[in-house]
Amino acid sequence: MSKQDVFIVDGSRTPFLKARGKPGPFLASDLAVAAARPLLLRQNFPLDALDEVIVGCIMPSADEANIARVIALRLGIPQTVPAWTVQRNCASGMQALDSAYHNISAGHADLILAGGTESMSRAPVLYNDLMVNWLSMLMSAKTFGQKLQVFTKLRPAHLKPVIALVRGLTDPIVGLSMGQTTEKIAYRFGITRDQMDEFSVTSHKRLAEAHDSGRLEEIEAIYDGRGNYYDFDDGIRRDSSMPNLARLKPYFDRTYGMVTPGNSAQITDGAAMLILASAKMVKKYDLPVLAKIKDSQWAGLDPAEMGLGPAHAMAPILKRNKLTINDIDYWEINEAFAGQVLGCIEAWQRDDYCKEHLGFKTAIGEIPHEKLNIDGGSVSMGHPVGASGARIVLHLANVLKHKNAHRGIASLCIGGGQGGAMMIERAGEQ
Description:
Blueprint: E1 6-13, E2 17-18, H1 28-41, E3 52-56, H2 67-74, E4 83-86, H3 92-105, E5 111-119, E6 125-126, H4 129-140, H5 144-151, E7 162-163, H6 164-168, E8 170-171, E9 176-177, H7 178-189, H8 193-213, E10 222-223, E11 229-230, H9 242-246, E12 268-278, H10 279-284, E13 291-300, H11 309-320, E14 330-333, H12 338-347, H13 351-357, H14 378-381, H15 388-403, E15 407-414, E16 418-425
Parallel strand pairs: 3-4, 3-5, 14-15
Antiparallel strand pairs: 1-12, 1-13, 2-12, 5-12, 6-7, 8-9, 10-11, 13-16, 15-16
Helix pairs in contact: 1-2, 3-15, 4-5, 7-12
């Protein structure tokens, strides 16, 4: 069976809102609805034309089981349209797009709403096992005397919470936090603290310039229940500079480390949603076309060096399509940490690494810095883990549009030792 072409029709995202030590104003479903509603309202098709809704999310709230279905129904999408949630850690939003891409390509669907969302500020705080067992005993106690006896067994240790976000950012297999894995990459490739900080300053300056020039047209303002509105990525630091970043102490290896909060992605709330369609639907509803999805790839690697995932996922796309670095006009590599992006760039310049790990006979080459994350990235705007994979694909499509460029690749590292990548091309009007 021949495969169908798959087009990105349009997309929107919320501003990315930095977590500030307490639950933010929006649930993950609030964010996705806020991104998707204006996106759907400007389309020329009825909602019952959708075949399915696919959303990436890692930590939905207790009231958002199968959050994709919650989002779909809140948007007024008919009950007959199925919806499902995917989870591939940091690349969950890209996984949603990839799932939609393959379903349309195979002819199983023609029109899909897909993307990702995360409210990291609302990550669960859980009871530990001691407290759960104590509550179980309390619930099992029948008489007042039995309950009183259970209360005498309550200890301070029972009240120690389990912070789901901290656990989620630590790999249980290798026992390293994501920041510690970046320290390993920096040591392996000789990446310095100054290089990381310089990369971070550039990210903030590029994001500021993109906001000021109006290039981030994919952002939709979002309103909370108190009349406040949010229309820009509020983690941006316009005063970011090398001296300012130099004052920050290493966070993950306090004695010898180089990774600081200033050269790491921010903990953030946000959502990005896209519409994917077959050529048949583009023609039927006279839909605009932002880009065409050409290829995608997932890769696995040592969890202790998970930040190199993009190097592993992008390489097969180049090889399979007989492309070189010069054939790619723009790149988006999610900035989980400045050091891991720099590590991916360096890995592709090493003959030994490309030969041993990526199946190339020699080094792939250097990704030009002026073509990479040209409007900033997660170091400056934040990394809502369920949403970032969708955000970078959407933004890359807009970059190709604004630059009248042809081809781009978006990629992420993934906690647990994986990488994901998607190649798109500017398709123009159909």
